[in-house]
Amino acid sequence: MRYPLTALLAVAVCAVMAGASSFAAITDWLHDLDERAQERLGFTAGVPVGSTVWRILTRLDDTLLGTVLAGWLRTRAPVEVTRPRRYRTVIAIDGKTLRGARTGGGRQVHLLSALDTTTGIVLAQVTVDAKSNEIPAFAPLLDAVEQVLGTLAGVLFIADALHTQTGHADEVTARRAHLLVQVKANQPTLFKQLKQLPWAQIPVGDRTRDRGHGRRETRTVKAVTVATPGGIAFPHAQQAVRITRTRIVAGKTSRETAYLTASLPAGQALPRDLQTWIRRHWHIENKIHHVRDVTFREDLHQARTGTGPAVIATLRNTAIGWHRTTGATNIARATRHANRRSHDLITAVTSSYPTTQ
C-alpha cells in the first residue's frame, strides 16, 4: 500500500512534538490515535506499520527536510511588533555528536547546527563528513541558512574557536554578514596579538553581575577598534574583544579571560551588545542540545540506517522550535501537554498560517 509522504511527515512532526523519541515511538503514537485523528493526518485507508515509517524516514534528504521544516516554523513564529533599535538577527553555530548513533562504518554521527537565538528555531543543520571535522561543513551550513532566510545581509554569526578560520571570515563577509568568534591557541599568532593589546588602558565597556545557585559572577567586557589589514592577523576584523569572568563559589574566587574578534565596527556593536550576543551563543547548547539529550534521550538513540540519525535530530529541533514559538519554557512539560491533546496538536500543525517572517 502507498501512503502520502505529506501524511508521514505530518505524523512524524506531530509525534515528536508530543514527545516521541524514536522512529518506533512515532509509529506507536500514530497507531494510538483514534480513527478520526488518523484521517485528519492523511491516512484514510489504514496506517503504515513501523518498518514502513522507519524505511521512508531514514531515506529522506536530511538537509532538505531541515530547510523545509525551518521555513515552515518561521511562518508560525510570532512577529515582534516592536523591535529594539539595535535589533540584529544573531545566529549561534555549534556542533553535536550523537553518541548512540553510528554510520554504516561504525563512526559516530556529528551534526553542525545554526540557531536563530531570538526565535529559538534551528534554521539549518548539516551532517559533518565522518572523515573530516566541522570546518568544511561551515560553508554548506551558511548555504542552508541563506536558503531559509533568503539573504544573510546584516546577520551576525557566533561560533566557537574552532571556526576562527580566515576562510570562514571571507565566506561570511562575501555574503554581507558578520562574524563574532572566540580566539584560542589554535590561532597562536592571533591569540598572542589579542592578548598583548593594551587592555589596561582600555576602559570597561560593559559589566554585568549575576547571582544564583550559590554563585556570584561578574562579566566585564572591553572592546577596541583594530585596523585591518595589518592590525591583527584575522581578515575583516573590526574589533578586538576581551571578556573577564570572575566567579565566587563557596568563598573561592576564580577568573577566566576570553578573547574574541568581531567584524562589526564599534558603531554597530557596542560593548553591551557584544556582551548580550556572546552569551546568546550558549543558547544552542542549553536550549537545543541539552534538551535533545534530556527530554528526547538523544544520546541513547542508536539510529544507524541511512540519514536516520540526522532526520530524527531535525524532527527534535523542529519540536523544540515549535514549543519555543508557542511560549513554552519547559519543553518536557510542553510535549506532555501536546500528547494529551492530540487533536489540538494536529489542528495546529496542519492548519494554514499566513507568513509572518
TrEMBL record:
GO BP terms, alphabetized: DNA transposition
InterPro entries: ISAs1_transpos, Transposase_11, Transposase_11-like, YbfD_N
Domain H repeat-associated protein N-terminal: start-end pairs: 2-73
Cited Pfam families: DDE_Tnp_1, DDE_Tnp_1_assoc
Domain Transposase IS4-like: 89-308
Range of residues in the leader sequence: 1-24
Annotated GO MF terms: DNA binding; transposase activity
Keyword annotations of the record: Signal
Protein name (record): Transposase, IS4 family
